[in-house]
Design goal:
The chain is an all-alpha fold. Helix content is 25%, strand content 0%. It is flat.
Amino acid sequence: MATRVKDMGMDRVLGSKLHSKYDPHTEAEVAHWIKAVTGDDIGQGPDTVQRALRNGQILVRLAKAVQSGTSNAPPQAKGYKIKGNTMEVPFKQMENIEIFLKFCELYGVAKNSLFPTVDLYEARNMSAVLANILLLGSECQRHGFSGPTCGPKPTEKHHVNFTQEQLRAGQGIIGLQAGTNKLASQSGMSFGATRHIADIKADEMSREGQGIVGLQAGTNKCASQSGMSFGAVRHISDIRADEMSQEGQGIIGLQAGTNKMASQKGMAMGAVRHIADIRADDMSQEGQAMIGGQAGWNKGATQKGMAMGAVRHIADIKSDDMSQEGQGMIGLQAGTNKMASQKGMTFGQQRHIADIRADEYSQEGQGIINLQAGSNKGASQTGMSMGKSRKIVD
């Protein structure tokens, strides 16, 4: 075996797949053919076969034997000079493998069927090596090699010349891909026409059976809707109630409703319902002055004297019981005048820089602009212009 870095990861998986394609039967066929042509024994097993063929000398002798034993070889293969190397140097051994591959290509083996040199020299894909030798044996059969051969039988072109009668006979046959006219068909059937009931033959039906409608068309032997009409008005008087008792005639069934429970008798829908419609004859003298919870309530806090939509003045709030100190304080709900305020501030007018008093500033602090108003001590945008020049006098 060649000494090379051991495959790892994905290379190891791919190598395992290639080695699994190695066929012992193909190996036996190739070994038998090489021994019959050259007299060399390549042994058994992928490792043994690889060591025997690695230097390329057996392959060169095989190519020479095929070239000399084929009288009908292609001209390129006949004129190819095969000269092997016997030196035990790696590049010379790989050169012998290249000589064998070149002869196989000239002899007729397809170029995409040739194995790379490293597949044999480094034992990467021995199944491809055996397949290449089998294809060389197939080409030997094609070109009439005088010695023994191996591999599958080569394919040959087969030209068929049909007569005009045969070609015309084929024009009347529809291929299976487009359908066929040789099997059962629907010939004689028509679609779209009316099929009458008289078309069904009933000659063998008995006299009794002629009066019976089959289940497929319906039946006249079970319950029917005979005498019923659709679209007309069905009156309540159509329901027969001859066997109902005298008492039962005054009762409306539950399916149509009932007149035996609470009803809305005397109620009108759409008219105004007045408060006077509620009868309170049985109410006590005390209860008459009380409005129930459903209609409201007159026993708790009320909004008596309040108006909706009018202006509510501060004078409306009674403060008779408030102390002298509390009268000067505005409650939190209306605001307060005891904390910081915005007294003296105006909205909408221009505020000048002169409005900010700086009497108590030190001489040094007057040259510094606060961070709230900006700063002149950090990075600035001096010298930058946005679309149009803006002057400080503006």
